What does this fold into?
Amino acid sequence: MIENAKVAVVGVGNNTSALVQGIAFYRSSGSLVGIHQPQVAGLGVGDIDVVAAFARSDGKVGSDLHQAILAPPNNFPRLDVELPPSGVTVQRGLVDPAGIARVAEALNGAEVLLYSAPSGRPETARAYAEVALRAGVAFVNTTADPVARDPSLLDRFERAGLPLIGDDLASQFGASVLHRALLRLLAERGLTLVSSYQVNLGGTEDFRNLVENPDSKKQSKLNALGSGQVQLAPLAYMPHLKSQKITHLNVEAQGWGETAISLDVRLQVHDPSGAAGVNIDLIRLAAAARRAGHGGYPPEAAAHLKSPPGTAV
Amino acid sequence: MIENAKVAVVGVGNNTSALVQGIAFYRSSGSLVGIHQPQVAGLGVGDIDVVAAFARSDGKVGSDLHQAILAPPNNFPRLDVELPPSGVTVQRGLVDPAGIARVAEALNGAEVLLYSAPSGRPETARAYAEVALRAGVAFVNTTADPVARDPSLLDRFERAGLPLIGDDLASQFGASVLHRALLRLLAERGLTLVSSYQVNLGGTEDFRNLVENPDSKKQSKLNALGSGQVQLAPLAYMPHLKSQKITHLNVEAQGWGETAISLDVRLQVHDPSGAAGVNIDLIRLAAAARRAGHGGYPPEAAAHLKSPPGTAV
Amino acid sequence: MIENAKVAVVGVGNNTSALVQGIAFYRSSGSLVGIHQPQVAGLGVGDIDVVAAFARSDGKVGSDLHQAILAPPNNFPRLDVELPPSGVTVQRGLVDPAGIARVAEALNGAEVLLYSAPSGRPETARAYAEVALRAGVAFVNTTADPVARDPSLLDRFERAGLPLIGDDLASQFGASVLHRALLRLLAERGLTLVSSYQVNLGGTEDFRNLVENPDSKKQSKLNALGSGQVQLAPLAYMPHLKSQKITHLNVEAQGWGETAISLDVRLQVHDPSGAAGVNIDLIRLAAAARRAGHGGYPPEAAAHLKSPPGTAV
Amino acid sequence: MIENAKVAVVGVGNNTSALVQGIAFYRSSGSLVGIHQPQVAGLGVGDIDVVAAFARSDGKVGSDLHQAILAPPNNFPRLDVELPPSGVTVQRGLVDPAGIARVAEALNGAEVLLYSAPSGRPETARAYAEVALRAGVAFVNTTADPVARDPSLLDRFERAGLPLIGDDLASQFGASVLHRALLRLLAERGLTLVSSYQVNLGGTEDFRNLVENPDSKKQSKLNALGSGQVQLAPLAYMPHLKSQKITHLNVEAQGWGETAISLDVRLQVHDPSGAAGVNIDLIRLAAAARRAGHGGYPPEAAAHLKSPPGTAV
It folds into this structure.
């Protein structure tokens, strides 16, 4: 029987809460509901052990992981599974480059380091990549900060026989996935796009950060939609939504005889579920590649990333 | 320069109104908006001449085609193009098998016979196929009545070197196309479908006929959606909608950790535009195949049909 | 301190489940959420004791009330309150007029008889009114069957000093209430209604009965909306919705300069909650009127009824 | 027969376009569609003559009024009415206090001065009120800038026998009117509000100004909704919408047994129509009050104003 994959996580926010609770939930329930790939290289979604965790906030460092994932401002729902103490105490993450050696020592046998901190701190992201290189573990960067897109870093992972996966996680199902699919469908059927808008409302800390610093993400989103006719409304942070994200989409098009076609969509999802549902695949991919001695970027990861190696920084 | 394709139409309802007005509109405007294929075998969307038309209702027989397509109960909008008398007088269609010879004589040089009458009269549909065979023209069956699915008929067209296209037109863009695309997207992303419903409201005569005789169409629609979890509400005929069709779709699914995903869609289209946007491709395909001497069923037509040869009757 | 009101219920469907569970919930939680009137004549929503219950189905007769309200086809959700055995065993209701004396004996001290069976059995409704007269208790008819609108019955209750409340419960909040409010708002602001539609989807037995026998209810609903321009789609029974009702409303209007105004609404409610939220007021009203010796129809009930005395049968 | 009311307008934006086109439309068509009050003090909606107009932009000053209302950035639709030259040339408005005398001379017999410039220039608003006092005409302030709420100004109009109407126009029908009505309906029915949000998208210059300077208006809107549980998303300026405004509203509530009620609304209106539909009433009210010698604030205006005299500045 195959051994469980061991993962260390950086960041103990909602996405980690969804990942950790979900692994426990699927392990105990045997459910396959909502799972993208039941098996990746022989590993089921429950075959992951989180062996170390790193955070920055005083409210989380020092707590048991199963307690820390439920502490505010995290607001992902409590899944229907028991969470006894995990035995993993959240450690203080990197605060300066000098910490690299310390953190590398503290990975506790991990095969994969999952970097799941907020986007927008490129130096921290790279420092954790150095941790992975030093410790000899695979690295998964879920943020928009350029790591896998840095050719020299990628080259070093490749030479070390360590997998490097990134950058910028594409959600399992969200507004971008849906909007892009609708625009593609219209084009396939020969309709002409007249206008389109997307409005997003959310209640997580991640969402609040985006509201306060919208520019980079907005452009990346527009690029992803690949259409100059799509308008994005400013993000609206609404704490009562907690980890839910609500999207209002409109598409106005013309068909035969230039007659009008109108499409209005309301989508409601749990944002952290969308991240965890993809992270579970990337972790397994990374663990399997490391076990097989395949360093560098595994092309199977491409479907799950917004900015794989080779795309613009 | 390639010669225009000559078509005779059976049925002077909304779909024929959309087709005839649209051809005139695109011919005069040069617009390419809303067109699925600008060219099929060298034929543009304006390169079609309607040379004969057949109807059953006293209100249409004897009128000029450009007048008949605007007569009630037709309620497709008047497109922004002038419609001077067409020179084609609507003739009385088949009323009994004995009329086959008469109608075959009256096709006025047509290369293609487009059967665009209401669904639900299989004998009439077959009789018109006999007209086409006798006159040596291609046949396009847009209705759900089995014609191309009848192997012996298909064989006779094949041996005669005449194209036979059918059965049951798939709209250029409508509720089925959209619903199926959404369900497929969910499955691709690994979400689990919990429930889904579709409600359709419309105001055409065709829609009223379906309301009064819903069973066959409903089953065909459910088959097309390919999911036992989709519920179809009874069709609602609302005359004030005229040729517009409004669809309310809901999809409830589960993602990672069995968390909920809700999708609500409102779609508004002009139903006859969806038909005309596909008929324009089928006519050109049929004309081109006949000119090339290719009899039988042209496989390129499959994407536009709900029940091509080989599917269940 | 005021004594609890004692009520006997006829019908152990979803509406009774919502009523009984809700009384227990509010009594134990002290919550005032979702309550229309915290006090009616000194009675709080928890100050009601159900002392007898009558049903027709073998699956319910003989069970404890707290078990029977949860038995299929009932599908109202289980509220967050414990339901130990109630001590009230569901009895067989009237099967023929001869049963009137038996049932009148079995009311177990009730002050109010709440008739909450399915609509469409006018003779049964009247027979239960006879039960109430014979037993000297107030009668509340929540169905569309004419009881309070029968002047001779009303006169007999009046002379007996017994309250008679009916007919046809208006939900606390539902599609009719909302649609009417929107149309009234439009009119107040001087807009001109162009068209409006309402589509209802539901999953209860009551809803299924309406789907199979739509006519009376549909007309009553149209009357309630008071506008010839409102179109009602056929009701759609979708079992997966359970006790939820989903309504899609559209209103198209014109404002200044005949410019267009469009309003699309999606409403989701638990139908039995809407009934229970009104029944709780009618029971308290009836009990208080009986205690005060006020026979006949109490005018304070009018706001909660679709067809009070004096309206057409 | 009563004489037409003579009005001078300040501001030649979309709201003035809607007003001027609408007056012409109703005068020529005889339609009563979309009109709040067919008659005010004997004056119909067509019984208004615009006798002078003032603007700031070089693109409008010097043009005929009927040309200026159609010039960009105005984007209100062209109504279905002929607009021959009006004979009124747009004049340059106030640029400094010294202009008061000049403008007062240029009112061309107006009885009412309608101040319909963008909000946010309180000194300009007051200077035009001085124009009205000097010229002896009634004043209508449609902006949020405090004029009628200034007790000393109101006192001067009162003593001069001149009507003063303001401040801040309430649209004939828009998001605030609808949202407030829905929240009130919920409260009336005894439901408990859990959360509510409102998202607004628009394409006019006025809307763009609000996007760039949202604070005052947002607070005023929240005050109008009268509920701390309503969240307003940032306004989204989308030029393709032109003069249309789209609003997405959500209301989450709880009813009996704390069961959930969800309400989702999409509203689409032409914003300038909502303003013109109210301005037409205020103009007639002001003209009638002046003719009757009633100075000061006419209480009949209250229903049309967000901030009448006595409310906070």
